[in-house]
Amino acid sequence: MQYDENLAKFLSKNPNTLYIDFLGQKILILSSLNIKNEKEKVYVFGFEEENIFKLDNVEFKPLSLNDFLNIIRTNLDEYKAENAHFESIIEHKENILLKGNLIKNFFKKSFILKQKINRNLKNLSLLNEALNLLAETSPHKKALRPLIFGVNIALKNSKEILTRLNELHLLISAIKNERINQSLYFLSVLSAIFLPLNLIVGFFGMNTNGLFLNGNKNATWYIFTLICFILIIGLVVYYKKRKKELEFDDKISKKTHK
């Protein structure tokens, strides 16, 4: 394996995981992310028949199959650890919602989390594609199969995590919309109740002669009774409508089975 200026320029422009036949040399570029400091480290491997080489500074040095597989396995474990971290975050958010609470600044935080999940998903997809291309021409195909299987599982897990986050996003949006609709409905009921009361107060508050009940000793009690009656009617109507709303897990009555 030879390292020259052409390969150096190519590697500088392609930091992502990639398997390619570059000028007759089979090259595997492996971009590894360290979770602790979030710094990317790029490994470059070369292949000649059954021999494996690793680029160290500006020289390709022989590398054993076990060492090569361990590097790939360590890289895969990092992506799995990220998936486990993302999954624990989403489970925590789901538990908060199950307790009836909302999440502060959820949409902003979920956007950042989605970007991280997509980055992990992209890296796993590139790794899966590179290993599959390598396995097609490598004599170490059997040794690569378990790694490819592990990458496929991690890739599927990343997609499931992203789906759960999207569903959580939709659920919180629906909850907030439902609360807004309930608030608007309650304000509408209050408006319907107090509108006739305002009309009554406005009517009897006019500074004119010949009003109804003018000079009656019990006029105030009559008006107060009318106002209370309107309030009670409005509250009863509101309560009956709310009572008709069933919970999702309410059991079907026996009458419906007959």
UniProtKB/TrEMBL annotation:
Classification via SUPFAM superfamilies: Magnesium transport protein CorA, transmembrane region (SSF144083)
InterPro entries: CorA_TM1_TM2, MgTranspt_CorA/ZnTranspt_ZntB
Keyword Transcription applies: no
Membrane topology note: Multi-pass membrane protein
Entry's localization field: Cell membrane
Principal subcellular localisation of the protein: membrane
Keyword Transmembrane helix (UniProt): yes
Residues passing through the membrane, by range: 184-207, 219-239
Name this polypeptide is given: Magnesium transporter CorA
High-level lineage: Bacteria, Pseudomonadati, Campylobacterota, Epsilonproteobacteria, Campylobacterales
